[in-house]
Amino acid sequence: MSLSCRGISFSYEVGGTQLPALRGVSFELPAGGSLALLGASGAGKTTLLQVLRGLDRADSGAVLLDGVEPDAAAYADLQREVGLVFQAAELQLFAATAREDVAFGPRRLGWPEADVTTAVEAALDLAGLPAGDFGERHPYSLSGGEQRRLALAGVLAMRPRLLLLDEPFVNLDPGTRRDLVAVLERLKAAGVTLLLATHDVDLAWSLCDQRLLLADGRVEAVGDWDFAGAGGSLLAANRLREPFLVELWRRLGRATESAPRTAAEAAEALA
Amino acid sequence: MKAAIAQYYPGSSPLHRLDPRAKFVAVTALAVALFVRDSFSGLGVFAVAGALAYGLSRVPVRWFWRAFKPLLWLVGLTFLAQLIFAPGEPFFSFGFFHVSWRGLELAAFLSLRLVVLVLMGSVLTLTTPPIALTDGLVWLGRPLRRLRVPTDELALMVTIALRFIPTLLVELDTIMRAQRARGADFRSGGPGARVRALVPVLVPLFVLSFRRADDLALAMEARCYRPGVVRTRLHPLRAGWGDAVLLAATAAAIALALLV
Amino acid sequence: MTASPAPTTAPLIDISGLHYRYPGARADALADLDLQIGEGEFVAVVGANGSGKSTLARLAGGLDKPAAARRALACGHDLLTEAGRLAARRDVGVLFQNPENQLVAQCVEDDVAFGLENLGWAAPQIRRRVDEMLSRFHLEDLRLREPHLLSGGQKQRTALAGVLAVPRRALVLDEPTAMLDPAGRSEVLAAVAGLHAEGLAIVYVTQEMDEVVTADRVIALERGTEVYSGIPSGLFADTGLVRRLRLGLPAAGELALALAERGRGPVRLPLTMDELLAGFAGSA
Q1: Are C89 and B222 in contact (CB under 8 A)?
Q2: Which of A18, A226, B203, C272 is the most exposed place for a label (fewest CB within 10 A)?
Q3: Which of A133, A159, A185 is the last residue of a domain?
Q4: Taking a C-beta distance cutoff of 8 angstroms, is the pair C234, A228 a contact?
Q5: Does residue A257 have a pLDDT over 70?
Q6: How far is C-alpha C165 from the chain's CA centre?
Q7: Domain CATH number, residue A216
Q8: Does residue A195 share a domain with residue A64?
Q9: Who among A174, A199, A244 is closest to C182 (CB)?
Q10: Does B235 sit within 8 Å of C115, measured CB to CB?
Q11: Is the Cβ pair C264, A271 closer than 8 Å?
Q12: Closest partner residue to C104 among B160, B224, B230, by Cβ?
């Protein structure tokens, strides 16, 4: 699913005054593409994701899904194909078994029970919690990393074509973090469009085709920029550093635009 | 997002600086006296006392209105009930309803009494931060400890609960949004459906709270908290001349109201 | 039983043969564990989830009762007795992972005062110490702020100030930066570095290797037992162990492991780009 964000503005009302959170945010994300949303805390990343999912209505501007405008009849159905994984997603677990929790979303979509079962099994497997072993487990008996995966499965079961993730890697043990990266790579390979808000510049570099830097609700940079070209003051002002591999390539005297995205790629290039 | 009830308005007026114990005792005494005396003149004295106190607190009037608004329905209901059901010769009838002068008088009195009561309570809550009020109540409730009532622990529970209300409201909102993103619907359907829709919100909130209670207890023990041990305070309660004046003025107002 | 006055090399935390099992668990959370921390030492504790790191942190702080131990002394207090544990809670501070769930009061300065109020200090002394802590951790502007209006890093700094308001001889931190964003993380790491510079004994539990670099010593746990104890560089040299324990490697380490798989890795696991580049130069 392609995503087109046109001039989105949004303000919060706090005690009578309006606090702008997003100011004229615009960008394009083609179907099957991936975008990393970077920015300091309070820059507006969470707000943007919730507006994109339709949980909040923008004050002005439009979000087009697959080129379809918000006032079109088909828009509501398209919105149901957008998945949003919240920060600390394990907060949403509530059912008695893993299967039941994952089934919540598909059931709300009104799918026949047979389809729900298939979707649940597939989602659990994809998230790294094989249904055979984990299906009947109580969500609260799972470890932190497993709970995070279960929450992700709950969103994946709805077969989103556009997946939004809000800081999915925070407070994850290193092993689960690596597994989650693998899951996202698999989704990318399957053609799911990804948009993820993250603090991790290295993951933003390795996982995503594009990067968007949000500062104080405004788009400061967007595209396949390599950080090196973005200018030191922009990075410093937003408390970002260059991805490790970009800096390494720069210090080795090689062209940063073609810097490798992953450690494996880098090792190949250097070996 | 704050509840209008028990809302504290920060300031440095004479009333703000008074000891919470004196304020609490004064308000309680006035409230009791308010219900003892059944005349408009007495009520008038209390109303003037209440208004004077409010003026002294320098809290903008709209804050009183904000605290009072939720109770408007109660006042209205009291007024109507008295108007309709009070005994007396009706001067105006409409089918079932008989309105008498006596009824009108009673309705006015009871409604106004309610207003004055809320006014006094508001002066207390608007000028006293919850933690100070709790400390004051703990001190006043000290004798209860001999009856094995854990006043200090209850006070700590209250302050901790108040501390976490804003946090819980944010978490509640977040969980609701996460479930909405999975297709949950909290608005449509009959009462049964709406209650069922709350399960995916309340269960995580409860689990979160239990986990929080465990973590918090551990953190408190790590800072040497022990139930039953007397704790000192960073801001100890200190009664002064102003408090004596308040109590004297309260006694005078009550005496006047009872005599008038 | 208190430790007799010893020469300055006497360990502040002296644990030998520690066992702990959670009720209803099938295996020990900690099995026959030894741990000695000296005055002013900075010891990191690493290990995968479930390796016993958090359990150790709680026991060292006197917050839980060991199942058995040959010796379990924290600042001279016997952790096997109730009285010893209570006394240990005063000398050993513990900072936990979740900043939100450590703050009890309705504003920052009241929370920092909490520990001292529990110990029955007089109001003027509490005031002085609280002001000292607020200044030390750069919280003066936030002294009346309510906890829900603080950022993650600010909350954790407030919790740290509250823990250290009680004068401590040792500080245990259980993954204090896990839930923080990069800004909060550097705030807390800077505060901890400052405490180490002042000579406070520190036990730092973490899964991130780059937080371990400045430690005097590292202890690695696997399923409740110690599998490594020594200087950080020794642990970094054992790439197999690092992988087995599923420890979080900084990017330089990841790249070095990838190169090692292709037969071109540096001899010693680098943690920074400089170390990596030096490794390249060395092997050229």
Answers
A1: yes
A2: A18
A3: A159
A4: no
A5: yes
A6: 17
A7: 3.40.50.300
A8: yes
A9: A199
A10: no
A11: yes
A12: B160
